[in-house]
Structures are given as structure tokens and as C-alpha cells.
Amino acid sequence: MIADTISEDNRTLTPAEERNLRAVTDVLQYWNTQDIEGMLEFYDDDITWTNVALEETYRGKDEVRAFLRMLFTAIPDLNFEVTHKFVRDDQVSERWMIRGTHLGPFMGIPATSRPLEIPGIGMVQMRDGKFVNDWYLLDASAGLRQMGLLPPLSANDTPIMKAALWAAVHRKLVGAGVGAVAVGAVVARVMMR
User: Fold this and answer.
1) I want to staple 149 with a disulfide (CB 3.0 to 4.6 A). Which of 49, 68, 115, 144 is the partner?
2) Of all helices (H) and strands (E), which one includes residue 95?
3) How many structural domains compose the chain?
């Protein structure tokens, strides 16, 4: 369902805003069935995706298609839920959640078979009802923690992690190699718990 109004001043949406909001809503059915070609029908031929977390930009449908294939191979049961949408002129911003199981390689990380729940935000520019620019940021550190590759942030309050963090920050004083080895050993020990 598309809201009639948006913003605190209860402004009525323009026809273009309604079309843009409908497009970002309608594409979800293709995300949630991993139908890449169906998704790409919502993208302009000149689409530019900026993946802030991975420090990558995908230009054109072929590059977006390649990224989506990798993503759906890694998380074949991916569910994409948009929890908030805001539209103004040709811009739509979203807050979303990706859920699924890490069953294939992702960012060079072999499958962990762990469930993932990764929040993100996106800023989309639309042209004629199609995505032309999509800038998004997913919480990569949450994903890495859920994969078991990063300790929880609460581990930083333990004496052993405080020592490891001190060594990492002051590695110029104790030597880069010693600092890196100390941090690696401590993180490995914390991860084993």
C-alpha cells in the first residue's frame, strides 16, 4: 500500500512521487523470489549502484546482474524487507533488512550456513519510474559478526580485548608485527569462546 501523504506537513504526493514509490515497492516481489531479470526491468539502462560497505560501484545492468548473482548464490533464501520509505521528487530513501542463510561464498568468505539479518539504508534516484542511481549502505560488521568472523562489540570491554586494542593502536610503539600478532591472537581467542 502506498501512503497518501508524506512529511510532517501532510503534503500530498505528486503523481511522479506516487509512481516512484510504487516502483520501489513493486520490485520487492522480484527480490524475494531472486528473479534478477524481473528486478532489472525496474532499472534504467544507465543504472549506477554504489555499494558503500563493499566500496564498489556497479554501472549498467550487466554489472548489477553480476553482483546480484553473487548475492543470491551466497544467500539463496534472501528476503528483502523495506521497513521505511520516504519520497521527495525523484528521490526515495529506504531503511531495509536483508534476511537469509549464508550458504555460498560472499565477499571471499566461504559459506558458514549461519542465519543473517543485515540492516541497511538506501538512497535511490528515479528517472521515469525506474532506478537510475542507487546508493546503499548495509551493516557489514553485523553480517561479519553473524558469520562468526568478528567478536561482539561487548568483547571490547574485556581485559584481554582492551590489551589487544591498545597493542593495535600503539603498534608503532611496540612494532607493527608484534601488534598485529597480538591482536590476531586475542581476536582468535575471543572468537573461540
Assistant:
1) 144
2) strand 91-101
3) 2
Contact criterion met (CB below 8 Å) for 114 and 134: no
For the record, the C-alpha cell of 83 comes out as: 521497513
Q: Residues 103, 140: one domain?
A: yes
Q: Which residues of the chain are under the pLDDT cut of 70?
A: 1-10, 171-193
CA 157 to chain centroid: 27
Same structural domain, 127 and 60: yes
Instruction: Give the span between the Cα atoms of 114 and 90, in whole angstroms.
Output: 38
Q: Could you tell me the sign of the dihedral formed by the alpha carbons of 82, 85, 95, 131, in that order?
A: positive
Q: What are 175-188's pLDDT values in tens digits?
A: 555 445 555 555 55
Q: Which secondary structure element, helix H or strand E, spans residue 5, and what is its range?
A: strand 5-6
The DSSP code for 128 is T
Which structural domain, as residue segments, surrounds residue 174? 153-192
Q: What is the CA radius of gyration of the chain?
A: 21
For the full predicted model, state whether its pTM sits above 0.85.
Answer: no
